[in-house]
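Shipment paperwork, digital attachment
Item: protein structure file
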Amino acid sequence: PVITAGAASAAAYYATVRVLRKKRGYATGEFFQAFKANFKLSLPLQLILVLIFCWLFFDIVYLYGYGTDFARALSYILYMFTVIALSVSLYLYPCLQRYDERNFEIFKLAVYFTFRHLLTTIGQLVLFFAALLGVYLMPWSILIIPGLWWYAESFLLERVLSRYGEGDEEEEDSESGERQEEESRIPGRTG
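Attachment content:
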């Protein structure tokens, strides 16, 4: 589950925007199609994130064992880096799905969005921690809260991502409203 979290996040974002917001397609089919398209692309990014979070976690635990004021100050700095890494990861997989760029470019975009749209980033963090708290307090809600979280998250993300190109938009005929693109194509992915 940890290794596939990146592809699942990109697919969940895509399915949420496409099915719930734009009323096109079916959730399950869109999710698995996007998951398959993003799996290989998201693996390197996910492995890097896992290493970063493991490094931060073990450093915080190590510093916690010292109990000195200096170690406590260093652990606060590491907490800050953990929040920044989490913020970047909240943008990373929607950017992977939406834009047709290499992984390093996607990572740079996610870092840029994290700091350029700070209020949106704070909103994403609030939603994320509220969702975690909801699942913690009501474990049965793990079946409902992730979908609600992605739906709310899509409003924040679309507001930011739509400003920087429409890699995800499908062209529509303005007179008849018919779709111009094939049903099986996933936006932002070729081949």
